[in-house]
Every structure is written in structure tokens, then in C-alpha cells.
Write a structure and sequence with these properties.
By secondary structure, this protein is of the alpha+beta class. The chain has one domain (6-84). Helices cover 42% and strands 16% of the residues. The chain has three helices and three strands, in the order αβββαα. The protein has helices at residues 6-17, 51-64, 74-85; strands spanning 22-26, 34-37, 42-46. It has a three-stranded mixed beta sheet with strand order 1-3-2, with helices on one face. A hairpin with a 4-residue loop joins strand 2 and strand 3. Helix 1 (6-17) packs parallel to helix 2 and helix 1 (6-17) packs across helix 3 (74-85). The longest helix is centred in the middle third of the chain and has 14 residues, at 51-64. The radius of gyration is 12 Å and the shape is globular. It starts with 5 loop residues before the first helix and ends in a 5-residue tail after the last helix.
């Protein structure tokens, strides 16, 4: 179940912190709310987004990239598998 709260955003940030990608919040006029630099493994999310907007952007990113699961802790692995199998319902 996806909850649009700050603690859930923190869990997503921790999950991405364990991946081989770097997450950054910066200003920008990204059409989708985020920019993904696959070659450099950097995810950039609009820092002016609301908590809900940031969570939706991170969920979109998670569904579009393949992360190295071997780097995840057990807790993060469960969250990652749950999120990649769940359809986002707004």
C-alpha cells in the first residue's frame, strides 16, 4: 500500500540510497517532474514538488529502471519487490 507521507518518502530515499543510482533534488522544468541520466546513474527530481509529487516521480523511476537487488538490505528488497509489482492508483 502506497502512503503519500514523509516517512514513506524517506523509505524510498533509503531504498534508492542502497542502489547504484544517486538521487538528487534540484530545481528544473522537467516535463515529467524528474530527469534520469542512465549512463551516469543519476536521478534528479524537482525539489519544489510536494511530497506526493516526489513519491510519484520516484515510483515512476523505479518502474523504468532495473536496479541491482544484490545491494539491498532485506527490508529494502521487500519494499522494492512490493513497489515494482504494485500499480500506482492516484
Amino acid at each position: 500500500m502506497i502512503k503519500y507521507t514523509v516517512p514513506f518518502l524517506t523509505k524510498l530515499e533509503e531504498l534508492l540510497g542502497e542502489s547504484d543510482y544517486t538521487l538528487r533534488y534540484e530545481k528544473g522544468n522537467f516535463k515529467s517532474g524528474y530527469c534520469l541520466l542512465r549512463d551516469q546513474k543519476i536521478m534528479i527530481v524537482n525539489k519544489f514538488y510536494t511530497t506526493e509529487g516526489k513519491i510519484n516521480a520516484l515510483l515512476d523511476i523505479l518502474k523504468s529502471v532495473e536496479l541491482d537487488k544484490s545491494r539491498f538490505s532485506e527490508k529494502s528488497l521487500r519494499l522494492y519487490e512490493e513497489l515494482t509489482q504494485t500499480e500506482v492508483k492516484a
